[in-house]
Amino acid sequence: MKQPKWVDLNSAGKSVLMDAAVSGNPDYVDLIVHGASPNLASLTGHLPIHHAAYEALKYFTSKTTLIESGQSPVHSAADGGHAQCLQLLIDRCFDVNALLNQTISDNYSDMRRSALYFAISNVDVTCTEMLLNNAGAKPDLDPLHCLLVAVRAGRYEIVRILLASQADVNCYFTEVTVFPTALQYCLRDEMMMRLLLNNGYDVDECFHCHHDFHFNMSMNVCSMNEIPTHYNCHVLTIMLPTAPVVSLHCHSQLLSHGLMG
């Protein structure tokens, strides 16, 4: 049996129903009534509900089809900043911890996978609070943890929200370095550094050497030419906002600037 025209894909790889979802055209209801499938994906793998969530519209698509698509409308709602739509999805028990499949995640340079990552990278405090406080989103599902994203961007309010939701203050981006990642991201931001330290940051990690030589706490500060370019560790020198260049192994320097108090 020949399919009705409204389920055909156009030259852009979208169905008429998909176009209706994107544009917010209420006629999409008539399309469904007359047999249009809400489970027909575009050439990019998006279902009409993904676009509907992004545009803050709502209707029905089977959860099985959503899982097979490799992404959740929760991602689309968080990415679009549509709190009302996101809350509806939460109320309908959509999994806020669902991850983008690897193929879709590979399209992002930061390898993001969670809906929470989208909200935080967009500096969306409302959706971030909603995902964490209303739905129990996990902040450690992405290769680059959500806390590190917020610290790197200097977003104090979001960092506070994440820490209040038990995000691991000592998390690492282990694919790059063994040096404490959060500290590396806020070396020039004393306020952010204090926020992390006051929430249990393990500053002792700054003084552990992971190389194959014994680290002598009395060793002289390395020159910039001696610092390994491929590996960040405690021998790295830093520029604090209110201090001259110091070495991270110098415990007294951190104390003198109140960074451990």
From TrEMBL:
<keyword id="KW-0677">Repeat</keyword>
<dbReference type="InterPro" id="IPR036770">
    <property type="entry name" value="Ankyrin_rpt-contain_sf"/>
</dbReference>
<keyword id="KW-0040">ANK repeat</keyword>
<dbReference type="Pfam" id="PF12796">
    <property type="entry name" value="Ank_2"/>
</dbReference>
<feature type="repeat" description="ANK">
    <location>
        <begin position="69"/>
        <end position="101"/>
    </location>
</feature>
<protein>
    <submittedName>
        <fullName>Ankyrin repeat and SOCS box containing 15</fullName>
    </submittedName>
</protein>
<dbReference type="InterPro" id="IPR002110">
    <property type="entry name" value="Ankyrin_rpt"/>
</dbReference>
